[in-house]
Amino acid sequence: MSESFPRLSARTRRFTLGVPRGFTISPDGGRVVFLRTKSGADPVTCLWELDTETHVERLVVDPRTLHADDENLPPEERARRERSREAAGGVVAYATDSTVTRAVFALSGGLYVVDLPSGQVRRLETPGAVIDPRISPDGRNVAYVTGGALRVQDLVTGDDRALATPESETVTYGLAEFIAAEEMDRMRGHWWAPSSDALLVERADEAPVHVWHIADPANPERPATSQRYPAAGTPNAVTELYVLGLDGSRVAVPYEEEYLTTASWDSHALSIVTLTRDQKTMRLFTVDPATGRSTLVREDTDPAWVDIVTGVPAHLDDGSLVWVAASEGGHRLIVGDRAVTPPTLQVRAVLDVDHDSVLFSASGDPTEVHLWTWDGHSLLPVSTRSGVFSGRMAGGVGVLTEQSLDAEGVSTTVVRRDGMAVPIPSFAERPGLELRVSLGRSGRRELATAVVLPTWYERGSGRLPVLMDPYGGPHAQRVLNRRGAFLESQWFAEQGFAVIVADGRGTPGRGTDWERAVLNDLATPALDDQIEALQGVAEQHPDDLDLTRVAIRGWSFGGFLSALAVLRRPDVFHAAIAGAPVTDWRLYDTCYTERYLGHPDEQPDVYEKSSLFIDAPKLERPLLLIHGLADDNVVAAHTLRLSSALLAAGRQHSVLPLSGVTHMTPQEVVAENLLLLQVDFLKKSLGASAD
After folding, report:
1. Rounded to 5 degrees, what angle do the CA atoms 191, 97, 251 make?
2. Residue 193 and residue 378: Cα distance in Å, rounded?
3. Contact 324/305 with Cβ under 8 angstroms?
4. DSSP letter string over 471-524?
């Protein structure tokens, strides 16, 4: 008997195991270093290298040969993986020197260095468990964090010393604080100077941040975990920057803004980017590392918020600044002092700068993400087929990853300078699902919509119950031209549902006005657009959808949206599954929440408008709430408080607590059975066949 989709999806971490990722190209373009597990069911990530001339692929580091127990992770590393949504183990991150000759990585708290040409690996002695090691550009020293201290070890002499030691238990040096990692995509807190003789280091003090306690009710003998959580309207960690020299020098780099969004240090400048607490002003500074004095390079403002874009700032060989900013309704690539992309092409990220060329991702159609280059004179498309692309570029060599609805999985290709394409194979498992997905637009707003029908269903043969399957929140998408986005939706469809996935206002790829439509109201536009998508699809499929049996399911923001749907529009939605829902935005973090709703003390009415508690007495449809009790992102208090409000109002509902489960739900048995339980709930709630 073949393995069921729920089991296979859980075992393969949703088919991400075995997929190449984490690429680094050597400066001469001759080698590509990357991460990949040995199979689609192997959770242990290895380090590999491809010779682009000979096409020979080589296993460089296999963690199993190092006898390291991947379960023995320091708490800071577990938190880092949760922030990055890392589902695998083994070598999940690494850093190289400027020539890509040496690499360093942490494994089970140990610090390792590998000579890439020979493949020789050695473990370095450290005084404690290691977090985020980064090797100097010259390959001589490695900086790392242990016990909150930033230390440096000389790889030649073995000398190991602290450059900065925390002054209290709430202080760390060299690590990104919670908000930076969770909401700004900044996973690091120290940066080497190009000269390899100093580092820019973040000092974070969490003392002002309120302490929350995450208990494990299933194991009452275990103490609750204390966590500093910066909820909306409450203090953030205090962050500071210092230039720490290997000679023991320490230079402060002061800045006034609340958030440090990113930093970079290349041969042209030491740069920092800051953001005010209200996120309406972003400033780019260059810093004199000798004095710490900052010079303002540019300031971007917006009456709603300024977006954080990954990959910038950067510089061309001539020193020209590479930046992304909102202009004329679009996110545009800025080189020097001018926009080089039209406002209709929505730039999503700068991926690499190779001498005078910029590789970036952008969307014309929001369901597609393509690669482009700016070569100093013109824009050139890199990807030409339909799909979702990403990549890297160095030494005139490119690495392209491609996904589409037409092909399974992720395809990775190295493009050499002579144009020859060299594939890097994926070992991912095949889902074994035939997709029946059609992408289109629906409603008067022309919402990007995917309709997923059972493969066995004949159009017009009978109306199917409907399952809306959104995320629906700002700065995230579900409707993309790639198969992986719809595997679970297709599986639900095979159980007898017409599944609709729709991206409403707030989602990226359609310009700044579209994204900012959710300002001061995360509830109304999101819910209205799901209803509009449902009605639009029903008009396109008049004989296929049964609008008297409509359910909605979602996780995180999608969980909030699902609960919201049955509370406010029971005339449209007849059942809902809300997984890890945000129920009161005062309980969610500062950076994300205040970006859209402002400060709760200044706009309490805005928070009330987007809260689920006031609607609790209105519940009249089946509602299943699911929450991991170990969730440190959307804490279980969200679900428990909503459940209390529903109980106080005498409204029947169901709660499924997941003991020991975080926001990611990585456990195989949990992930598998969650899908099966959801189908059972939906069929019973909608009166559908249980066959």
Report:
1. 25
2. 32
3. no
4. ---TT--S--SSGGGGHHHHHHHHTT-EEEEEE-TT-SSS-HHHHGGGTT-SSH
Q: Write the single-letter amino acid at 87.
A: A
Q: Rounded to the nearest 10 degrees, how much is the dihedral formed by the CA atoms of 629, 631, 636, 639?
A: -110
d(CA 422, CA 56): 10
Prediction pTM value: 0.95
Residue type, 518: V
pLDDT at 690: 43
Q: Of 619, 632, 634, which Cα lies nearest the Cα of 580?
A: 634
Per-residue pLDDT reduced to its tens digit, 311-322: 999 999 999 999
pLDDT in tens, 483-541: 999 999 999 999 999 999 999 999 999 999 999 999 999 999 999 999 999 999 999 99
User: Band of the pLDDT at 666, cuts 50, 70, 90?
Assistant: low
Quote the CA–CA distance of 226 and 221 in Å, as a whole number.
15
Written in H, E and C, the secondary structure of 323-355 is EEEEECCEEEEEECCEECCCCCCEEEEEEEEEC
Residues 544 and 460: beta-carbon distance below 8 Å: yes
Which tokens belong to 681?
């709930």
Neighbours of 202 (CB within 10 A): 25
Q: Are strands 21-25 and 31-37 parallel, antiparallel or unpaired?
A: antiparallel
pLDDT value at residue 71: 63
Mean pLDDT score of the chain, rounded to an integer?
A: 95
- CB–CB of 114/139 below 8 Å? no
Strands of 18-93 (E only): list them: 21-25, 31-37, 44-51, 57-61, 89-90
Crossing angle, helix 557-568 and helix 524-540, to 10 degrees? Answer: 80
CA distance 600 to 581: 19
- CA gyration radius, the chain: 25
**Residue 236 to residue 574: CA distance in whole angstroms:** 40
Residue 582 tokens, joined: 């945000």
Confidence of residue 667 (pLDDT cuts 50, 70, 90): low
Largest CA distance in the chain: 77
The secondary structure of residue 558, as a DSSP letter, is H
Exposure letters 528-556 (e unless 16+ CB within 10 A, then b)? ebbbbbbbbbbeebeebbbeebbbbbbbb
Residue with more model confidence, 664 or 345: 345
If you search the block for the tokens 């992930």, which residue do you land on? 671
Structure tokens at 148: 């909150």
Tens of pLDDT, residues 113-169: 999 999 999 999 999 999 999 999 999 999 999 999 999 999 999 999 999 999 999
| pLDDT at position 236 | 98
Please tell me the number of Cα atoms within 13 Å of 132 on its side-chain side. 27
CB hemisphere CA count around 341 (13 angstroms): 35
Alpha-carbon gap, residue 291 to 253, rounded angstroms: 8
What per-residue confidence (pLDDT) applies to 69?
Answer: 60
**Measured distance CA(215)–CA(640) in Å, rounded:** 13
Q: Is the bond into 313 cis (omega within 30 degrees of 0)?
A: yes
Separation between Cα atoms, residue 51 and residue 296, nearest integer Å: 43
Give all strands of the β-sheet with 141-146 in edge-to-edge order: 131-135, 141-146, 149-154, 160-164
